[in-house]
Here is the input.
Amino acid sequence: MIRLGEVQTLEVVKTQDFGVYLSEIDKGDKDKVLLPKSQVAKGITIGDKIEVFIYKDSEDRIIATTTIPELTIGKTALLKVKEVTTIGAFLDWGLAKDLLLPFKEQTSRVHIGDDVLVTLYIDKSDRLCASMKVYDLLERNSPYHKDDKVIGIVYEIIETYGAFVAVDNRYSALVPTKELHRSLKVGDSVEARVIAVKEDGKLDLSLREKSYLQMDEDAEMIFKKLQEAGGFLPYHDKSESDIIQDKFNLSKNAFKRAIGRLMKEGKITITNTGINEIK
Here is the structure.
């Protein structure tokens, strides 16, 4: 059976001026597909085997191509948005006919130039389309362990859970809401630390280093803000957590560790009104 959206090795069963017809090996020409002349190598004859991708052309006819796109059925790939229209976005996947990403298959609205992680499926009209709903396709057998550094792409954000990430574009991972110390959006590439490997193989990630390593970076950031503000900031260890999060993008505990470090280094004093730089 000739399968839409897949790479197959087919046999030449008929030649024409406009191309050759291909069929499954040893199955005759009952179920055949055209490989256009522009795709046919010189010297091809009946009985030759050719690896092709099966898709539909601009006139919605099933056709073969020797150009293998970046995405096939059941796989995932990071593709760039070329155009956004009233029916969805069109993605560059390496073929002359761009791939449609319908609005209903977008986990977040995309824009021209965005890179999005998608899978390929056949819609109700028997057309190949892309979907950003890749959760069920991601693997859970990654080679990573706790405290390993990983790189992934954000493919969905659900406020109650966090940012869903495809590590290496293939492994299932999550940055839990409590670890989202900076704003992320779908399509962002993130470098993160594995904080847990769940029983089912999924990874939990953090965007921050271990606390003793992160402390130096946090302290440096706060001290820079202090200097930019002229040596005084109206925040201290009794400030509300949501205020600290908003102003410094830190948890209350991370903030307290950082200003504690600055105090030990003799760079600041803390009063009931705020932080003062020692000059």
Q: What stands out?
A: The CA atoms of residues 91 and 180 lie 29 Å apart. The chain is about 15% helix and 40% strand. The longest helix spans residues 211-228.
